[in-house]
Design a protein that fits this description.
Strand content of chain A: 15-25%
CATH superfamily of the largest domain in chain B: Nitrogenase molybdenum iron protein domain
Strand content of chain B: 15-25%
Order of helices and strands of chain B: EHEHEHHEHHEHEHHEHEHEHEEHEEHEEH
CATH architecture of the largest domain in chain B: 3-Layer(aba) Sandwich
CATH topology of the largest domain in chain B: Rossmann fold
Oligomer: heterodimer
Structural class of chain A: alpha/beta
Strand order of the largest sheet of chain B: 7-6-8-9-10
Structural class of chain B: alpha/beta
Number of strands of chain A: 14
Number of helices of chain B: 15
Radius of gyration of chain B: 21 Å
Helix content of chain B: 25-40%
Shape of chain B: globular
CATH class of the largest domain in chain B: Alpha Beta
Largest interface: A-B, 72 and 78 residues
Number of strands of chain B: 15
Distance between the termini of chain A: 23 Å
Largest sheet of chain A: 6 strands, mixed
Radius of gyration of chain A: 23 Å
Strand order of the largest sheet of chain A: 1-12-11-10-13-14
Largest sheet of chain B: 5 strands, parallel
Shape of chain A: globular
Chain lengths: 443, 384
């Protein structure tokens, strides 16, 4: 039944060698395409990390559609409800009452009592001049045992101001209150969708120093999540979390340290040194971990050899750092799929421009990419779902958002995953269409 | 409460209905939206996205462009992409934010059409209506612009077009193919299908049909236009089950002979009988009413009632059927049912009832897509 329309002669599939690319956006902005690779998280996935919380989205059907089915596909429809905006609210007002009555109706019909409600508003609210304070004050008075957290589905701000993902990282900690006493032996890793790799050296090093690293993923209930507010310090390694860390400093007076998600030994050691100084700890000795990482890289290189490697931005926040590390170790990296780069990757961009000028940069969302789904003549190893899709290879590392593989041990594990991916085919179509890498999925 | 959904899903919306209806015709469809529409539609509502290329894009409108009403950027981006990709036509589709700022899509379409030299549609959708309305708008406009001339009809066999086919209602499980096969078996010549499996060139020839078969609400407006413009009568119904599909086949012949449109399931055999088991069927009006009639004809011990949460016309429902736009309406109506036939995501509203799963892509998206049965000419997969 399905037969493809003829691809146009000129697919408009742009690409640029890194030597000719501009930073941070190598491609012209215009209409956008969305590939079927769906491993990255959205605000529903992130919000579900708060234990015993319930989400209520207030928006148009078209916007509700994506979020309700995100919840349903992760088997969490029982933690999701919605209030749809109709033309009546747009033309006649009444948004406040609709939200208040709607929230009340939902809470009364739920089969459980949530400890927190994430009440999401949408772009439309910004154009309606509705009284948000009144809505949240009223529902909070009605249900004093429930913490209402204002959350935002505002894709119009995707390219300016605080993006929805940045805002979500702030709001997911909004229920935390300033503690009377902070726990010096407890620090948080904040803002990440995926938990830190269980064997990361960071966890062991802190433990050796009597410090427990807390993560939202380990919280067994809402109180446990609230108790993270008592941590004396926050660590984060995603650029999206800068504003959340600043907010926690402002509200809870908790200092933080940003560890850039680098794949280069020197940069990682520099960050660890800085963290140790901030925490008044001795500089860590990761000689064994580094040796193990170098060995893992060597083994992977031996197995993978000169096989072509392509990387996409959904795999890691630092695709250029990752590409640089691989290229410096002799891997045959040929392409990077990315629409823009984070500021952290600037130095690596310049390095690659100088030392590997023929590295190809390809977009993922330009219209012509609709017609790019190549069939590789020779084996191609893709790192990330989008790269696998565009290059048409079943040999790929299925990881999104870095997978929590931070640090030397994280790199060792990525090398193992690369070797595994090189040896074993995966069901590309089945795997990459699942939403939210690492989340439960019923499809 | 109105506009509140506590436990179930939300149906697909009007802008996605437009995209679904135009998907296979070689056009370029641009949703004037910031971000979410593209991934939402292509992930949940478009089972063809992985295997079948189609030029569906978003404009990626930013807050400033929305506030300042920067239509020029939209027009420039569309023209630039059309120049590269050479679509057969262009459709510009509204979303919530352009609706808030009063974007005039018809005016933008007129400008693009003039500059690009291609047919261009402007759809005043807003994301606040159901997909059924979007399909209806798209198929009507398609008919209006592309079905202009009267084409000679074949003399050997009666040609029948299919109107209102999209994966949102019929999946890609072979149901539409089965409808075409059923037409052939009944002695008809399948004409074009609006709009699965037919090219734009085939749609051009729609006026060569003797009868149009409307298989969902989304196809009705196009059928009315074809009747008005070319005098082609239409018949409403989906050939479910053996007995009802026989009736539908006869109705198509009758419509052609009488030159008058008909609804195949209009005459309900019997309803309201307390002695029968009460069956509630939730979903799109034409599909569910056809199914209800098909079930009643083969299972006289059952009395079916359609609960329709979506847009429809009262004539497309049978006596006793009910419009149920809200979750509360459905929950209340289900209390009287002995068992329920519906998308599995409705089961939370009636956990104690006997439930027959009939997944509907427009409601649960891709979650149960492998479990959608083909019921054309044969109800056995329903396991009643």
């Amino acid at each position: 039944m399905l037969s493809s329309i003829n691809a146009p002669e000129n697919t408009g599939a742009e690409q640029v060698y890194i030597k000719d690319a501009s930073f941070p956006a190598p491609f012209h902005a215009g209409l956008e395409y969305s590939s079927p690779a769906r491993g990255t998280w959205n605000i529903v996935h992130t919000g579900m990390l708060i234990p015993e919380s319930h989400q209520i989205f207030v928006c148009a059907y078209g916007c509700l559609r994506g979020v309700v089915l995100t919840a349903a596909e992760m088997n969490a429809l029982d933690r999701y409800s919605s209030i749809s905006i109709s033309e009546k609210q747009v033309l006649d007002g009444g948004m406040e009452q609709l939200m208040i009555d709607g929230v009340k109706d939902i809470i009364e019909k739920l089969s459980y009592r949530p400890r927190a409600i994430l009440l999401f508003i949408s772009c439309q609210h910004f154009f309606l001049a509705y009284d948000q304070q009144y809505v949240f004050d009223t529902v909070s008075d009605m249900f004093p045992d429930i913490r209402f957290i204002d959350c935002y589905m505002i894709p119009t701000l995707r390219k300016s101001g605080i993006t929805p993902d940045q805002k979500m990282r702030i709001q997911m900690h909004m229920a935390w209150k300033k503690p009377e006493v902070k726990n010096k032996n407890q620090i948080n890793l904040i803002g990440s969708n995926l938990p830190l790799y269980a064997h990361a050296e960071l966890i062991g090093w802190l433990k050796e120093n009597g410090i427990t690293l807390r993560q939202i993923h380990d919280c067994k209930d809402y109180d446990d999540y609230l108790s993270m507010a008592a941590s004396s310090f926050n660590i984060y390694y995603e650029p999206l979390v800068h504003m959340a860390a600043e907010d926690l400093k402002k509200r809870l007076d908790t200092d933080s340290c940003y560890l850039t998600f680098s794949f280069r030994k020197e940069e990682l050691l520099e960050d660890y040194k800085r963290l140790a100084a901030t925490l008044n700890l001795e500089e860590p000795n990761f000689t064994a971990e580094i040796e193990e990482m170098e060995s893992a890289i060597e083994i992977a290189k031996e197995k993978i050899g000169d096989t072509e490697i392509v990387i996409d931005y959904s795999f890691t926040f630092r695709p250029l750092s990752f590409a640089r590390m691989l290229l410096e170790h002799g891997f045959h990296v040929t392409e990077i799929y990315a629409d823009a780069f984070a500021a952290d990757d600037k130095e690596d961009f310049e390095y690659l421009k100088e030392h590997f000028p023929d590295l190809l940069i390809r977009p993922t969302n330009r219209p012509g990419m609709r017609f790019v789904h190549e069939t590789a003549d020779q084996k191609v190893l893709a790192i990330g779902q989008k790269a696998a899709y565009f290059r048409g290879t079943d040999y790929f590392v299925n990881v999104a958002e870095s997978g929590g593989y931070f640090g030397f041990n994280g790199i060792s594990e990525i090398m193992r995953l690369m070797t595994e991916a090189y040896n074993e085919k995966k069901d590309r179509k089945e795997i990459i269409q699942k939403k939210g890498f690492g989340c439960e999925s019923c499809i | 409460m109105k506009q509140v959904v506590v436990k179930t899903s939300t149906y697909s919306s009007d802008e996605f209905g437009v995209c679904s209806a135009l998907y296979e015709l070689g056009g370029m469809v641009v949703m004037h939206d910031a971000s979410g529409c593209n991934s939402t539609y292509t992930t949940h509502d478009e089972p063809r996205w992985y295997d079948m290329d189609s030029m569906i894009y978003i404009s990626a409108i930013s807050e400033m462009e929305a506030i300042m009403g920067d239509d020029e950027k939209l027009i420039t981006d569309i023209l630039e992409t059309a120049e590269e990709l050479k679509p057969k036509f262009i459709a510009i589709v509204g979303a919530p934010i352009p609706y808030m700022t009063g974007t005039d899509f018809q005016a933008i379409a007129n400008i693009v059409e003039e500059k690009a030299g291609l047919f261009c549609f402007g759809f005043q959708t807003n994301g606040m209506e159901y997909y059924t309305k979007g399909i209806s708008m798209a198929l009507r406009e398609l008919t209006d612009r592309f079905c202009i001339e009267s084409v000679p009809k074949p003399s050997d066999r009666m040609r029948v077009n299919i109107l209102g086919a999209t994966p949102l209602d019929f999946s890609v499980n072979g149901t539409v193919d089965a409808i075409e096969s059923w037409l052939s078996k009944k002695g008809f010549e399948p004409g074009c299908c609006f709009a699965m499996g037919s090219s734009l060139d085939e749609i051009f020839l729609a006026s060569s049909a003797h009868v149009n078969l409307v298989i969902s609400y989304g196809g009705l407006e196009a059928a009315k236009l074809l009747e008005e413009r070319f005098g082609i009568p239409y018949v409403v119904g989906v050939p479910y089950g053996q007995v009802f599909s026989n009736l539908l086949g006869n109705t198509i012949y009758q419509a052609s002979m009488m030159n008058r449109h008909q609804i195949a399931y209009a005459a309900k055999m019997e309803y309201g009988s307390e002695s029968k088991k009460q069956v509630a069927i939730i979903g799109e009006s034409v599909l569910c009413a056809s199914l209800a009639s098909a079930i009643e004809m083969e299972h006289p011990e059952l009395n079916c009632k359609v609960l329709c949460p979506l847009d429809t016309e009262s004539l497309l429902l049978r006596p006793g059927d009910q419009r149920t736009p809200e979750e509360d309406d459905i929950a209340s109506a289900l209390k009287k049912a002995d068992f329920v036939i519906a998308d599995p995501l409705y089961q939370t509203l009636c956990p104690e009832k006997e439930f027959i799963s009939l997944p509907h892509t427009a409601f649960s998206g891709r979650i149960f897509e492998k479990e959608i049965p083909i019921l054309i000419g044969d109800l056995s997969a329903l396991k009643l």
